[in-house]
Each structure stands twice: as structure tokens, then as C-alpha cells.
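Entry 14. Ran structure prediction on the chain below.
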Amino acid sequence: MGDDDPVDARAVRLSSPFGTEAALRATAREDGSTPRVLVLGATGYIGGRLVPRLLAGGYRVRTLTRSAGRIASLPWADEVEVIEGDASDSDAMNRAMDDVDIVYHLIHSMSGGRDYGRIDLSIALTVAKAASAHEVDRIVYLGALHPNDVDLAPHLASRKDVGDIFVASAVPTIVLQAGVVIGAGSASFEMIRHLTEVLPYMPAPRWVRNSIQPIAVRDVVYYLLAAARAAPGVNDAFDVGGPDVLTYAQMMNGYAAVAGLPRRGITALPVLTPRLASHWVGLVTPVPRQIAKPLVESLLHTCVMKDQAINGLIPPPPEGLTGYAESVRLALGRIELDQVETSWVDAQVAHAPSDPMPSDPEWTGRTVFQDERRKDTTADTAAVWNVISQVGGATGWYSASVLWATRGLIDRVSGGVGHRRGRRTQTTIREGDAIDVWRVERVDRGRLLRLRAEMRVPGAAWLELGVDPAEDGSVYRQRAVFFPRGLTGRLYWLSMLPFHGLIFSGMVNRIVAEAEQGERKGSSNTHRTAP
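Output, C-alpha cells:
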């Protein structure tokens, strides 16, 4: 069983061999106490998979996060220590570093806008300084494969520069330089998946001919865990990759073969610049332009392992490295079973509003527009909540799908995340999850779902879907709240009023109808199976 095997989240957390194997388990300090690990980026794609396996391996885990509520919604939240603060804040970092043995640095600001390189360097300097002051034994950083002696694309240059900062610091550092990560929910895999599935023929940039050494996410997690047990004092960068070296075109057709699709025709063109290609990827796939651009830029280089030095430090996994085709098969199995553990869609969006919705009494003196609706239903609260909790993604928004899609396309073209971002899974929902153009701000299970808009709008917007018990069933309630910014914001709300009438009334009626139909089906099944 590996990181992308189709099992439920709790089974992964409790029984995954990663961390429970003797070679990966924590070794006690000299005084016999359990070592403490600080994970920076614990809510990210890799960090969210590493933390439960560190716990399984017997480590004490501490996280530093800007949102303790986001950690609280994760299945392992009660097992970790949470320090709330920003990684760029030296005071917060010093609090987080106290009594720490190993620091995992998994912060990458790729979705943070044009300044992601500067942000990453600033955070790295803060981390290195605090780690040195607190005499941390080791830093483990996940970087990226890159060639030497060439002008690197900004994304790869940023990864290399951060690794160089840590290696040059006073703290021994292991930099693991990984290739394209293949796993359910990774941005790189989703790019390959959607490009292959959508386009039977693809005119592509010349980089589709460059050699790439992909690596399965389960193997990345293995190397990260094993790095904690490596010989003390090691201070260097090591390339890691899977067993296959492929071109991007071969990766796309390799995906097609596993997914049962016909072979795709791919023609390399010299005219598609990274900027044009990222716009095109942003329109064809759910990956937004601000993430697609650095990913596309990194493909301009041949990125393969330069040596096998990692084998002298960390032996390969006992069962061997995962081949590309097997990585794709495992990822598709996770997606098919709706058991994606972590996903790129939950990455924070640059310049998106992050402040929570003000409470009603604080609205005094402020301009606020609302659309409030409610409807009585014979369905109980559980049936209504079941419908609410599946909103967005593959389910859609229960009304005016063309209008939702059009609004999402407008947002994507203007540089936003767009409507096709989807959601991590369709069956579970937690604070911090992304749902299309929204971010889950609050979940009161069985009662309230509050979503904060991350689309580009002249103001701040929220959508609340909730249910209250009633004598003969329940009451579904729905509220859209918009705080306009200037005259543009007011005109925007007025221009959307005709569409709100169609969208929001349709949502109310359809959600209630779905809940009542679901309850009838459940009752019918109960009667059929009763003795």
C-alpha cells in the first residue's frame, strides 16, 4: 500500500507503511524523548500527505500556519501542535522552532503571483536564521530537478536559490530535487490528464520534446521521511526521480494508454512561447494561468537526474521506485474512488480576499447587498445537508449551469481561478477547501456552509447555504452577501441582479427537491431491506 493506493483517508493515516517501517520510524533523542518535527507547508499538496506519515512513524509534529481553523478541519488535527502565524514573520518562526529537531520546508509560493520568487527567498532566510538560533539538527527542503550551467526559468531558479540558502546556512540541510510529481491532485498530473483527455490532437511548444524524469508522489514522501533518518551532518542537494525518463509528449501518450484513450497526435511548434502556452493551458485545463505559467516555464529545460548520489544516502524504497504508468494508474484509482488526499486546488490564490465575513452587527454604516431566500421542506436536516455538502465540482450548482460556466470563463480570461477548478473530493468538505471559484470559509456540519468568493469581483462576496430543523421537516436557507468596492462594485451588483433571480431561486428550488427525492429513495431502500 502506497501514497496513492485506493484506501480511505483514515486507513492511510493508520496503516500506511510509510513511517511505520523500522527504517523510517523516529529514533529517540539522547535523553530518550521523542524527536519533534516542524512542518512548514503542512496544508499543501506534499505537506498534507507527509504529516500523517510522520505521526505514524512516531514523531511529534508541529505546524506553523496562517489559519489554525484550516488545520482543525484535517483528520490528523488533534495529533499535531499548531502554531498560528506567518512563515515570513521572524517572531512566529522563532516560536515554531523552539525545541525542534528537524524542519521540513515545503513552502512554495508558486500561486502567489509574480513575486513568488522574492517571497520564497525571504521566507527561506527567515527559516534558516531561526533554525540556526534554535540549533535545529536538520532542514529538509523539497526542491526541483534542474540542469546546471544554464539560465533557469524563474520557477526552477527560485527552487534552486532557496536550496542554496539552506545549504549555505549554519544548519545541515538535505535538499531533495524532485522531477514532475505524478499523483492524484498534483497540478502537474492534472495538466497532463486534462490536456490528454480534452485534445485528440495538440499543437504544442517545442518543450514537449525535452526529457523529463517524473516521480510518483508516494516516492517523494518516502524520500522525505527517510531524510529524517539520514546520517547526521549531511549538507548537500540530491536529485531524486522515478525509473522512467520521458518526453512530455511520451507522458501524455503514456497517460492515454493507461486511461484507455487513443494515442494523441502531438506536433511541436516553434511559435508557442511560455506565456502563450500558459494561456492556452489555462483555458484547456482547470489549472489557472498563475500556476500553469511557472509549470510551463520549468518544462523549457531537460530535467533529469544528474547522478545517483541519493542511493548512497537513502536506499530506494524496498518495493522499488514506481514507474510512470503505475503512478498514473494509482492516481486514476484515487480519482475514480473520490479519495484524493490532497490537491493543488486547495492552494491559496494570490490577491484573493482572505478576511472572514464580518458579523452582522459590524455592517452598521457599511454598504452591503444581500440576496436572502428560504424554503420549507419535508426533508430532514440530514437530507438537506447531504445535498448542500456536494455543491460544486462535478455536481454543479443546482441551477443555471450555463450562467455559472459563463461567469467562470470570464473570471478565467481575466486572470482568475475560473469555474473549472472543481473540488478535491465530491464527498467530503472541510474548511480551506476550494470549490470552483469559492473557498470554504466555515463548515458547521449538518447546519451551515459558508463560501468566500475567489473570483475577481469589485468587492468581497460570500455565499451561505444552511439548514435548520422544523416541526415537519426543515428549513433551507440561502444568503449571498456582497460588500462593494466603490462605484464599480455597486454597478456590478446591480448588473448581476437579473441573473441572481435566475441563479439563486433555481438553487433554492433544486436543492430542496434533491433533498426530498434523496430522502424518499432512502426511505424506500429501508423498507425494501427491512426484515
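The chain has 16 helices and 19 strands. Will compare against last week's run tomorrow.
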